[in-house]
Amino acid sequence: MKTIPQIIVISIITLLSYSCSNEKEPDAYGNFEDDAITVSAESMGKVVSLNVSEGEVVKANVQVAVIDTLQLHLKKEILLAGMTTVDSKAGSVETQISVLKEQLALQETNQQRIEKMFKNGASTQKQLDGINAEIKITKQRIKNISTQSQSVLAEKRSMHAQVDQLNDLIRKNKIKSPITGTVLETYVKQGEFATPGKPLFSMQDTKNLTLRAYVSETQLAKIKVNQKVKIEVDYGENTKSFN
Question: How does 178-196 read in b/e, with b if 16+ C-beta sit within 10 Å?
Fold first, then answer.
């Protein structure tokens, strides 16, 4: 696999401060930091597309690879179908509760009427006990169905969470470039199998490299923050200078 020229990634350089620019020996030696980023797979599956090549410059947030998401989409479709069934079940439960509440309201009205009649001797104890029993049964039915409703709602929330999880996995299977930079190496080919954590490719922002050079203790007094320096970089058989 090819990489970008080593002179761009790691180069031996000489660092000369302007105050010592007439000296033959450099003030310090150093190199450009290799701050390459390795982009890895987050899910398991076949690499169905890999649209980057070594040496190519890729912009940030551009989709460059896709890992097979067919099974994830099928699982999502199964869950969505199940949610439709649950929604229908939840609607049926709510309808039952609504009907029972209307029935309870009518029973409570009859209860008040029978109680008044009982006080006036116009109804019997059996009639009063009967309406009280009917109200008790209706309230219990409402309670039971309400419990069933909570179970249905919990099932629906669980399905929503699973769909969100699948959407997240599908999104992670669409690999995007984390930075604008040059692709250094590719580690897989289209059609190969990827696993979580497996490197797909590496890239580096070659326009913004970090230069690290070391100076001696005696030179520290001559160095100031924001001081300009001259850098000489190996350039083929010669050197190239930068300020």
Answer: ebebbbbbbbbeeeeebee
